[in-house]
C-alpha cells in the first residue's frame, strides 16, 4: 500500500508541475501580447526546465506502474484498480490532475495562438520592409543621373 501512496504522491507532484507550467504559459501569453521578447524567452527557458521535470516524472511513473503491476492502465481506470481504502483519495488526485491538465492545455493553446499571430504580423512587416528596400533600390537605379554626355 505504501507503493500506492508513493504513486499518488507522484501524481500530486505532477499536478503541481502542470500548475506551474500553466502559470508560465499565461505569463508567456502576456509577454507575447506586449511584444516583450525578453519575457517570452524567459518563459520559454522556464518551460524547458519544467519539461525536464515532467520527463523525470514520466520515467518514475513508468517504474511505479510496473512495480504496481499497472502497466497499460489509464488514468481513468486507476480508481477501479486502487486499494479500496484509498479509492476516495485516488479519485480526488486523478480529478485534480485532469483538471490541471485541461487548464494547462487551454493556457498553452492561447499562448501558442498569440505567438503565431504575432509571428505572422512580424513576417508581414518584414515582407513590407523587404519590398520597400527592393522598391527603393529600383528607384535609385532609375533616378540616377547619366553624366556621360
Kindly describe this structure.
With 149 residues, the chain is an all-alpha fold. The protein has a single domain, classed as Methane Monooxygenase Hydroxylase, Chain G, domain 1 (Up-down Bundle), CATH 1.20.58. The protein is built from four helices and no strands. It has helices at 2-34, 37-67, 78-81, 87-142. α1 runs antiparallel to α2 (37-67) and α1 (2-34) runs parallel beside α4 (87-142). The mean pLDDT is 86.
Short description:
The chain has 4 helices and no strands.
Helical/strand content category: mainly alpha
Per CATH, which architecture?
Answer: Up-down Bundle
CATH class descriptor: Mainly Alpha
Q: What helical percentage do the residues reach?
A: over 70%
Number of strands: 0
The name CATH uses for the topology is Methane Monooxygenase Hydroxylase, Chain G, domain 1
The gyration radius over C-alpha positions equals 26 Å
The rough form would be described as: rod-shaped
- The number of helices is 4
Number of domains: 1
- The string of secondary-structure elements, in order, is HHHH
What's the helix and strand layout?
Blueprint: H1 2-34, H2 37-67, H3 78-81, H4 87-142
Helix pairs in contact: 1-2, 1-4
Q: Key features?
A:
mainly alpha; Methane Monooxygenase Hydroxylase, Chain G, domain 1; 0% strand; 149 residues
Amino acid at each position: 500500500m505504501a507503493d500506492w501512496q508513493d504513486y499518488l504522491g507522484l501524481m500530486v507532484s505532477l499536478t503541481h508541475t502542470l500548475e506551474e507550467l500553466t502559470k508560465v504559459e499565461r505569463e508567456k501569453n502576456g509577454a507575447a501580447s506586449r511584444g516583450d521578447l525578453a519575457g517570452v524567452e524567459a518563459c520559454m527557458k522556464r518551460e524547458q526546465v519544467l519539461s525536464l521535470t515532467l520527463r523525470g516524472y514520466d520515467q518514475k511513473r513508468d517504474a511505479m506502474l510496473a512495480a504496481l503491476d499497472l502497466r497499460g492502465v489509464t488514468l481513468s481506470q486507476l480508481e477501479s484498480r486502487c486499494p479500496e481504502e484509498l479509492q476516495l483519495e485516488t479519485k480526488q488526485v486523478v480529478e485534480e490532475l485532469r483538471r490541471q491538465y485541461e487548464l494547462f492545455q487551454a493556457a498553452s493553446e492561447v499562448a501558442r495562438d498569440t505567438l503565431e499571430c504575432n509571428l505572422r504580423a512580424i513576417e508581414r512587416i518584414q515582407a513590407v520592409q523587404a519590398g520597400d528596400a527592393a522598391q527603393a533600390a529600383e528607384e535609385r537605379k532609375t533616378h540616377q543621373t547619366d553624366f556621360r554626355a
